[in-house]
Amino acid sequence: MDQTKKFFSLRRVFSFTFLFIVVLSLVFLIFVNSDWNIKQIHLMTSSSKAFERILPAGQNSSLRSIEEDNALGYQVTCQPVNQPENNLCGLVLVLPKVEGKGFPLDSYESISFKLHAESTAEDFDGLVRIFVKSYLDESKESPDFVKDYKFHAVRVDRKGFNEVPLSRFKVETWWEDMHNIPFDLSYVDLSTVHSVEFFVHNLPLQDQRTYQLTVSDLKILGVYLEKHTLYMILFYSWLVVGLCFYFIFRYREAKRIKNQAYHDHNTSLLNLNGFKHKYQKLVGYQAIFYRVKIINWNSLVRNFGLSMSNTLLQEIVQNHSVFFRSYFYISARLSHDDLVFVRRRKALSAEDEEKLIRSLLLPINVVGLGELRLDIKIGASIEKSVPVNSQLVLDRAEIASQAILNKDERIQLFSNEISQLAEQKSAIEQQIIQAIEAKAFYLLYMPIFSASRHKIVGVEALLRSNFGDLKNMSPEVYISVAEERGLVREIDAMVINMALNEVAASGLGDDFILSINVSSQELMDTSFVDRFSALVERSGVRFDRLCIEITETFLIDVDAVCVNTIKNLRALGCRLSLDDFGTGYTSFQQLINFPVDEIKIDRSFITDLGDEQGHDVIVDSLVSIASNYDYHVVAEGVENKLLYDRLVAKGCDLMQGYYISKPISLAELAILNQQIVNAEITL
């Protein structure tokens, strides 16, 4: 979101700058083509005389001023009396000095004037020669015989208005020839002008006639800003601005691409690449890593889709972005269900850790879906000196989170004890893998006894192993590890196949029920029903002789996929049993609505019957509900005659426990059942 705002902000700056330059360019273009750009000096006006002095030139010359249309002019009249070679007729206008030097005309473009020349001589051509006489450049060394002035000239017609570009004035060749001017002095120089002079063209004058030359409205014209200069300025300005914005956008684009490469596109958090990049700045310093595992991510995706799950996480991150930025140096999403928050120097306080947990657990209300929330476990690892290998740190934090995976705690700090426990679990995992490969698992069966029928009516298949350390280990321990490490589905398939084949070969009655525990991971798999059905059909055991047991705690996270799987199993004819009832949070209302055929009361309620009034009430209620809603109730943990009699008195018909029998093989079970039926064993 911040990157988008920055992008649009840059676009606004670019748009404003572009518009400003366009307007400024148009203003300058209008200015350079308007009268405002014209600068001029009126050398002849009635109110101002810009000359230092005005001199006539020629024999018998006379000078008088004239005024015409508010423009001042001068008229010189000459009548030579003899014909020397230097006889001439003209007007010399000496310009004032500027800063001790001649008048600068090089910043102007042209000179304009009204001109009239006439003569009584019949061969007079009417042409006028204009001289611009400049001071020689003092910085240049010149021969002693060279005078102090340089001559530039141009020829014009005698009548009317004239405007002569100053660029037309050339250095006079006669001046160069007369004085043998060196090359480095023979250049046009109008920067220090001494005078502007008008002469009748015939130099020298050839006859003794009258010559008259009139010059008026003399002006020097120029511009403040030349067009070619403006065009060059605009060209380079647009070029510079274009290049600047090109490189700015290239930089922004490179930054955007880098941002995409380093950030998760669904949230504002860094991704794995971004985490590794920023992690390098922590190497050698103290930091604490909080690794967050979203344990219900797969369930959210199955029920609501990946897009909605990402939206949930995105809203949680956005709602607490200030908290994350304030407290953590790194906030990253390593994968769909894996986040990491890194704090430099010291760990969060207990209060702030609770704030972190609450921020991630906060539900989001979605129209049509209700409240959605994440379920998380956080593993923390304090690193006094962050190692170069980031995976070592992440592994330690993950080990800590795995330690509380099946516990009520939300956060766990990594320690040596937890590391040792993780190593033990890894060792158990390897033992399980080896035992599966060696087919070192076998089944025992816990009998289910019917008091009313006075016989064993079913069994619960229990997994055992004679491999390595597993043979001396409680199955609950290595089954728990198998669930954590993703091996339980393979074990479930093995147990189902073994149990079906052994029951099919046992010759037990057609009404004999086989109960098999199935993990929640299997029920979340849409292909489980097909695989299970194939195994049952191959074994020859009828579906109505099978009972699938699930734990009550599984109902907390049950979703539409699981419900559909359970319905399909029941549609095949299988029963469904809710195991360890009372240890979770299932209400009686849920129990009534959930499609089960049997509930097993956890042994913790059975053991204290008669001593704990609350347990008696629960058992009585369950038996009553079972009677009203046609459930089967199985009491677990029946260890003695007293408990057996109390359960019979309450109307509980089915029970299992060491009072009936410990787990045994099917062959032993057949013998035991026969002994009970024949009254050889009294219960």
TrEMBL record:
Gene Ontology terms, MF aspect: cyclic-guanylate-specific phosphodiesterase activity
Keywords of the record: Coiled coil, Membrane, Transmembrane, Transmembrane helix
Coiled coil, from the record: 411-438
Top-level taxon in the UniProt lineage: Bacteria
Positions of transmembrane segments: 12-32, 230-249
InterPro entries tied to this protein: Cyclic-di-GMP_PDE-like, EAL_dom, EAL_sf, GGDEF_dom, Rev_trsase/Diguanyl_cyclase
All residue ranges annotated as the EAL domain in the record: 425-677
Name recorded for this polypeptide: EAL domain-containing protein (Putative c-di-GMP-specific phosphodiesterase class I)
Source lineage: Bacteria, Pseudomonadati, Pseudomonadota, Gammaproteobacteria, Oceanospirillales
